[in-house]
Amino acid sequence: MRRLKIVIADDHQLMIHAIRLALEDREDIEIVGEADSGSKVLPLVSQTSPDLVLLDIRMPEMDGLTVLERLRERYPKVRVAILSAVDDPAVIQAAFNRGASAFILKHIDPGDLSAAIRQAVVGAIFQPLGLLERATNGAKEAELSKREVTILQALQSGRSNKQIAAELFLAEQTVKFHLTNIYRKLGVSSRTEAVRYAFEHGLADNSVFEVA
User: Fold this and answer.
1) CB burial of residue 86 (10 Å; 0-12, 13-18, 19+)
2) Helix 191-201 crosses helix 89-97 at what angle (to 10 degrees)?
3) What element of type H or E holds 43?
4) For 6, 20, 122, 200, which has the most beta carbons within 10 A of its beta carbon?
5) What is the mean pLDDT of residues 184-209?
6) CB within 8 Å of 180: residues ≥ 6 apart
């Protein structure tokens, strides 16, 4: 099995060390480079040709979102997973809009980090990882069904009703029906409000919604 090559970009050496500890015993992952500022990431990617960049949002010299944009432009085949303590819904959505394959919160269980990296390489994770307890409680409080949770995940990724219907093998009218119920249960009136509510309350059951 080919080892996944990753670059770590974080301005805190303690965090880089913690990531190394979490991944060092994984035979299928190889850390090929480290960057402690945003300006160092692109040259490092050019030198090491990684499969994925594990990127912090708050970086000196060039912030993570800007780095993400430039990586997607110059190295579209390299996946980018954001690893950040920032849990602002607007920032999370901005990262996905710019092409992030995953958004991983820094309080994720270290034992789950390697699995998150592998998932980000093979697909895209549109629900922030590291919110399992919040997600489970939030879904129960909102009384969302499993199908409604799945549709809410797809909604967070910016998919249209038609796209959601096609990917879940549903009629578009059925998706609209579920969205109406989701809005009612969450007490919101639009897609934007539903996505913001979901992020703020850790909804979507922490599941993975993958695309090719």
Assistant:
1) middle
2) 120
3) helix 41-48
4) 6
5) 69
6) none
